Amino acid sequence: MDKFRMMFQFLQSNQESFMNGICGIMALASAQLYSAFEFTCPCLPEYNFAYGIGILLIPPIWFFMLGFVLNNNVSMLAEEWRRPTGKRRKDPTVLRYMFCSVTQRSLIAPAVWISVTLMDGKSFLCAFSINLDVEQFGNGTDHGLSDTDLQRMLAKIPCKHIFDGEAVISREAASRYIRCISQGFGWVFLLLTTMMAFLVRAIRPCFTQAAFLKTKYWSHYIDIERKMFDETCTEHAKTFAKVCIQQYFETVSGEMHKFHGQHHEKDDSDDEDNKNKIDKDKLLGIHVQDDMNKVLRNWHTCKPALSLKKNPDQNGDALGHVELYMNGYVQQTPTPAKKQCVAYYSKV
């Protein structure tokens, strides 16, 4: 159990690396799923296009939505977007950065699926086989087939076991032609996605480095604040339950002793006093259920402002008072520091 707890803590502390690993696993899973998937074209003019395009687009949409589901930042983004402003304003650039980060990770697996599908060419062949030019791949223009029969024959090109039109069109030549076009689209798609990834990751920070660092910092802050709030609530709930149970047993024990007429002297040792003091400190001054409900409600409706104030006279600190705001600017009013003299002595 301790090993699982340590692993969970490691994943929480390295969430970005963990999410990158999840994206890589999803990308490999999409490629493996396509290789294990049995592609079965209906070979009917009414359904070929819908089936081929559906195989090309529907699984990527599913992988895209799955990427959002597996990403923990989605709930954090929705909570930050929907929360009341209160004392802390919402920065649209931070929310935009978080959304773009989640979207970029979720697009990896769909991009792999589309690339593998286009490189294979089966879905493209199934979708566009009825649009072939019979004169370009056929054995003659006089095939003697009506338009309906010709479309049915072209729709059977992806299905070599039921194709019966070799006298009209060469199935092998038509299949090679469509698969070459599909692979060409696949390479173009890979090139475009790679260029877009390069532009997003390399060029954007060069032009807006200050804004990029600011949005990245505050997005990390929102994530860490949420984790620490959950940990504090968990610790408070654990301590609250412990103290409540202890008081219950002490009350029941006192009533039983009173009923039986037994009197025992209380043994208040220093260890017990220290433990009780530690438990009371963990409660943070909140000892009533209504007070805790009020704290939780206020945290959602009116989060405290991001302004850390420090008393300049406390602990002899000469840095003075520092205020941090949500927009990333730091205002500092230091008190005059004492001059220091340093003397250097040479041994030469």
Summary tags:
13 helices, disordered C terminus, 2% strand, elongated, 348 residues, 2 strands, 2 domains, two-stranded antiparallel sheet, mainly alpha
What does this structure look like?
This protein is mostly helical. It folds into two domains: 2-207, no CATH class; 227-261 and 271-309 and 318-331, no CATH class. Helices cover 66% and strands 2% of the residues. It has helices spanning 2-13, 15-36, 48-70, 73-82, 92-106, 108-120, 122-128, 134-137, 147-155, 171-207, 209-260, 270-282, 289-301, and strands at residues 321-324, 330-333. It has a two-stranded antiparallel sheet. A hairpin with a 5-residue loop joins strand 1 and strand 2 (330-333). Helix 3 (48-70) packs across helix 7 and helix 10 (171-207) packs across helix 11. The two termini are 63 Å apart. Mean pLDDT is 75; it is low at 312-335 and 341-348.
Task: Give me the secondary-structure topology.
Elements (H helix, E strand, L loop, with lengths): L1 H12 L1 H22 L11 H23 L2 H10 L9 H15 L1 H13 L1 H7 L5 H4 L9 H9 L15 H37 L1 H52 L9 H13 L6 H13 L19 E4 L5 E4 L15
Antiparallel strand pairs: 1-2
Helix pairs in contact: 2-6, 3-5, 3-6, 3-7, 4-5, 5-11, 6-10, 7-10, 10-11
